[in-house]
Batch of 2 targets.
Target 1
Amino acid sequence: MSTKRVLVAYGTKHGATAGIAEQIGKTLREDGLDAVVLGGSLYAGHWSSKAKHCAERNAESLRHRPVWMFSSGPLDRSAEEDDIPPVSAVAREMQLIGAREHMTFGGSITAHTPGFLAKALLHEGKGGDFRNPERIQNWAHHISAELVAA
Ligand SMILES: Cc1cc2nc3c(=O)[nH]c(=O)nc-3n(C[C@H](O)[C@H](O)[C@H](O)COP(=O)(O)O)c2cc1C
């Protein structure tokens, strides 16, 4: 029996990105394939510094593996309506490690999200959970399909 490994790493502040990463990991495991997927949340136009440092620390080994990246952010349906390109720092990391593709998923802030700014956004009616499970799963299956084709 062959051993297939999936590494899904992520940088999160309040857990919304973890939920996306878990779903990607579960779907890839079910498909039984190898991949590295690195995701991070967006704050004030910046990708998670933890995800960024992870990419930089492991650049050498990631360069030799198939890598996909994602961002979690928009608190509306915009990520479903258009392909939102990676912010410039993510585009640089992708180039550094030769990552295959990037996807932006809707993010989430709810009444349980800590922090003054999250509360302020909710107060302005900008909150909600915009992570779309179907879109996340489809992307993970797309990764599997690319790996099978390779
Ligand atoms: C203070 C604050 C700033 C944010 N800035 C952005 C942003 O610049 N771009 C974006 O797409 N989403 C932004 N968001 C939305 C977050 O990226 C979204 O809630 C994300 O899912 C959070 O993931 P996490 O819980 O894993 O940290 C912001 C949210 C907060 C609370």
Target 2
Amino acid sequence: MNLPKIHSITKKMFVGAVGAFLLLFLLFHMCANLCILRHDDGAWYSAFCHFMGTNWIVKVFEVVLLGVIALHILLTLWLVVTNRMARPQRYHERPRTKTHTNSRFMALTGILIFVLLIVHFCDFYFVKLGWVKGEYMVKTEKLINDDSGELLQLMQYADRNGFDGAALVANIESQAEEFGFQPNSEELQLFIENIRNKASVIDIILRAEKEQNFSQDHKWVRHLTYDERNTLRRVMPESDPEPDFYFMAREKFKHAYMVIMYLIFFVVVFLHISHAFPSVFQTFGLNNYKYNGFIEVLGKIYSWVILIGFSAVPLLVFFGL
Ligand code: HEM
């Protein structure tokens, strides 16, 4: 295999820089997640996720972050492969040096993190991309106000007559000629199609009213299904439905198996970063005998803060606190 020749130290520096970026991301992600612990009906966490989902700088950051994770994995694999190619013949005796054990340990915990991260993405991030079904919410004002005001008129009409969406369509369809449409004309079809679309939104609003699916003083309409989210994206793209991560996280962590799986995830992350932290300093030559002890302690504090901060969310939610 012919891999481009880049000095091993340069590769290590890339891995280190990327690792440092990921370490900072973890701290940021952990702090944001602590908002899930607030009993505020998701006001803070939803506002944060809304900002994350709509701000274009964050969107660029997200692409950079996922690229950086992929780069981190590829560079590490590349380091392992090129180091092995530099010594194709294995040692007769297994080396027992600290560095060797460390790199095997980092590879193992790295693989585990990758697998658990995919599971984590299936729980949350892929829901945002629409690849996995979840629960969604939409700002009430965006759902009720369409530009033409037609939706409001139809809703009042449906309300006065006790119609649901289907009954509303059937009623208007039967009176189409009274509205001045030729039977079977293209205009009539377009008119009916428009009413049908509006009626599907009316059904969503009616269900929300019946089940009291509102949060934060009616700011959001909650508990939208995947199909309802798709309907809104098609009929009212400006309504911009988004995943209800606050509710989803709180629901998931009511289950013991979820809590255990996430705790395993955090412990593996803890083990990985408590080794990675001093390595980053070593790679950039920022360690020396004088500061080694300090860097070790700082790494331990950092890893424990990450472990405790992340674990607090599933544990406290599970115990109803
Ligand atoms: C209690 C624990 C955690 C919860 C509740 C949680 C929740 C979430 C949520 C809701 C998202 C989607 C956010 C959005 O896209 O708007 C997300 C994304 C993500 N999470 Fe976590 N997470 C947890 C732990 C972790 C850990 C330990 C890691 C890394 C080892 C991690 C890495 C990521 C990454 C890389 C993304 C995608 C990038 C992003 O959208 O910010 N998460 N997480």
